[in-house]
Design a protein that fits this description.
Layout (H helix, E strand, L loop, with lengths): L4 E10 L9 E6 L4 E6 L7 H20 L8 H25 L10 E7 L2 E7 L3 E6 L2 E4 L6 H7 L5 H4 L21 E6 L5 E5 L1 H4 L4 H8 L6 H14 L6 E10 L1 H16 L8
Helix pairs in contact: 1-2
Length: 277
């Protein structure tokens, strides 16, 4: 348990109904508030090796950095730590692909969540996603690094049309493609009762966001049952890819709630305006 936070986590990964093996990989470390998910890219050799390297190396490195009883410091240092470690892992995957013929051009997506205090820092590369359920509202926190997302942003296709696009699985960023990688990292405030979902595109290609929301309601739902339900729904809808999910429910401890109230009072006293969720 990280300082000021109580985290409940559940994880599932399944090969789906079509693929002969599973190229997804998931890792969690509740004592330091860490969840990591990677999806070895279809069409690349040894995708399962790349995804396993990504999750296992980041798990080991960050547990070593943060320990079982410490939490990250300021936002800037957390950003720097994640950027450093993900960059190291990217280079390790890239160099392994260059040295091993059977792993030539292997690559993987990545989505990572690191909770501390009353915040979560999210890092991602590729089209694996992180969602937040707050109350009855489901919000996608990450933006896909994909050719299809670029078309959506440019207004070439709508979100509904995108579900049937041939460009659905063409990512524009991934770990292991080159020695350098561009990583999106952002910090978000968490509220008690929030549920966070990390998932591979094996879920989101098969299950619409509206269906995901329904499967996560009510907020008091058992996370293990919800994780099973998400995987089952993806497979019932065709299961054309590996499907992996990590669910995290957040409860704020007394210290984190006190810090949040103190910041709220400071904003009122200094004329900072209304509190923004």
């Amino acid at each position: 348990m990280t300082a000021g936070l109580e985290l409940e986590m559940a994880r599932r990964t399944h090969p789906g109904m079509v693929r002969p093996h599973n190229e997804d990989s998931v890792r969690i470390a509740p004592p330091i508030g860490l969840a990591v998910l990677a999806d070895g890219l279809g069409g690349y050799q040894a995708g399962e090796v790349a995804s396993e390297m990504a999750t296992s190396m980041l798990h080991e490195l960050l547990v070593g950095d943060l320990g079982v009883s410490r939490s990250p410091g300021r936002d800037t240092s957390t950003h720097k730590l994640l950027r450093l470690r993900i960059t190291e892992v990217n280079r390790a995957i890239f160099h392994a692909a260059q040295r091993r013929t059977e792993c030539y051009r292997m690559a993987t997506t990545l989505v990572l969540a690191l909770f501390a205090g009353n915040t979560v820092t999210v890092a991602h590369v590729g089209d694996s996603r992180l969602y937040r359920l707050r109350g009855d509202s489901l919000t996608r926190i990450t933006r896909d690094h994909s050719r299809l997302q670029d078309k959506i942003d440019a207004g070439i296709v709508t979100a509904d049309e995108a579900r049937y696009s041939r460009d659905k699985n063409l990512v524009t960023r991934a770990l292991g493609v080159s020695g350098e990688v561009v990583i999106d990292i952002a910090r978000h405030e968490v509220l008690s009762g929030d549920i966070y979902l990390l998932c591979s595109d094996g879920l989101t290609d098969m299950v619409a966001d509206s269906e995901i929301r329904e499967l996560l309601l009510p907020p008091a739902i058992n996370l293990d049952e919800a994780a099973d339900g998400l995987v089952r729904k993806a497979n019932e809808n065709g299961g054309r890819d590996n499907v992996s999910v990590i669910l995290i429910r957040v409860r704020l401890g007394a210290a984190a709630r006190g810090n949040r109230l103190a910041r709220f009072m400071r904003r009122l006293i200094t004329g900072g305006g209304a509190w923004q969720n």
